[in-house]
Amino acid sequence: LRLVAVLKAILEGEKATVLKRDRHLPLSFHRRQEELKFNLGLQRLQHRIHEIQALRDGAAGEGSGQDGSLLSSPVAGAAPQELPTLILEAVKELEAAKQQVLKRIQIWKRQQQLAGNGALFEENLAPLQKRCENLVEVYFQLHQQVMAASTELGAELLPRLLERFNEVLSGLVKR
């Protein structure tokens, strides 16, 4: 264990040295890293949407037997508590993805301003547009799941979720 601790300390020192020396990596590297982070977030969000769909389908399909009697299933019993939690986590991730898009838009705007002073400026809006389109697509999928699960969410949680959805979409459109 002591050897591992010594090696870990050495490697952390080397990592700090490399990061200090190469902190001015090419801009394309940082953009690529940011793009990968955003895409990973969207994939995680898509996975959450599929989990919500599966949980809703499982709760509806396993909740009653052929004769109409209720079955005792751990999935059916856990669904009312898990579904709101899953949806809240998904909305939180959606808001984080929106913040990433807005940050990227702000960077683009700043680069456009600096271009007036002679700085290099990449005018290609296709990656930014694709980000917005992907985010809006995921937004509508999640919104659809929330509306389909409105009866399970209750009268208190649903209006708060819809307000958060409106804030995400209006923030994206306004910027």
Automatic annotation (TrEMBL):
**One of the Pfam families matching this protein, by short name:** STAT_alpha
Q: Which keywords does this Swiss-Prot/TrEMBL entry list?
A: SH2 domain
Question: Which InterPro entries does the annotation name?
Answer: STAT, STAT_TF_alpha, STAT_TF_CC
Q: Where is the STAT transcription factor all-alpha domain?
A: 89-149
| GO biological process, any | signal transduction
Give TM regions: none
Coiled coil residues, start to end:
none
Q: Give one GO term, molecular function aspect.
A: DNA-binding transcription factor activity
Top-rank taxon, per record: Eukaryota
Under what name is this protein listed? STAT6 protein
Organism equals Herpetotheres cachinnans (Laughing falcon)
What gene is it encoded by?
Stat6_0
